[in-house]
Amino acid sequence: DGPEVGVGAVIAGGGEAVGAGLTVNALFAFGEEVGWRGFMFKALHGRGFWSVSLLTGVAWGFWHAPVILQGYNYPQHPLLGVPLFAVFCVLLSPLHTLVRERGGSVWHAAVLHGTFNAAAGVPLLVVTGGDDLTSGAVGLPGLMSLVVANGLIWLWRRRAARLTSPAQYAVPSM
Asked: At what angle do helices 106-119 and 78-103 cross, to 10 degrees?
């Protein structure tokens, strides 16, 4: 058991994560995002939101394989970590694609990426037990959260499509 951490520490950690995500972490994430949400986004343009997200997520996830095998994110399970992180990136990619698409710039995705990287450790301030597969942002809780987030993105995009093209859903007149 580690020391008890209060709500104030978690809030402070979240604030620090946002600050880092908007500054130094965004600069580091920008390097990746130029590839994923810059060149790859443009190369895949026209394939549809979910296809772009899937293809980018797979490439993004397996691109990290060398560092995952060295123990990054999953020090207890580096071999299982490679496919798990690929699934994680596939599930996180729609959020990044949405931010890139709606924001119109790689910088928006870089800020999201940087903020996520900074915030990923905040839940570990209050979570005890488990291992790198069953706790934390890139473990089971993160995967489950992203499944829910993708369901919400799907519902939002479906609703937005209906609102922007009402003729498509109108009852034909006789």
From this structure: 140
Which residues fall within 8 angstroms of residue 19, CB to CB, at 6 or more apart? Answer: none
Is residue 59 within 8 A of residue 92, CB to CB? The reply is no
> pLDDT tens, 33-70?
999 999 999 999 999 999 999 999 999 999 999 999 99
Q: Is 31:127 a contact under the CB 8 Å cutoff?
A: no
Per-residue burial over 33-70, b = 16 or more CB atoms within 10 Å of its CB, e = otherwise: bbebbbebbeebeeeeeeebbbbbbebbbebbeeebee
Instruction: Note the pTM of the prediction, 2 decimals.
Output: 0.83
What one-letter code names the amino acid at 13?
A: G
Report d(CA 89, CA 83) in Å as an integer. 10
Chain centre to alpha carbon of residue 139: 13
Q: Please report which residue ranges of the chain form alpha helices under DSSP H.
A: 7-22, 24-33, 41-43, 49-63, 65-69, 78-103, 106-119, 140-164, 166-169
Helix, strand, or coil (residue 23)? coil
Residues comprising the chain, all counted: 174
CB atoms closer than 10 angstroms to residue 101:
18
Triad 41, 158, 171: Cα angle to 5°: 130
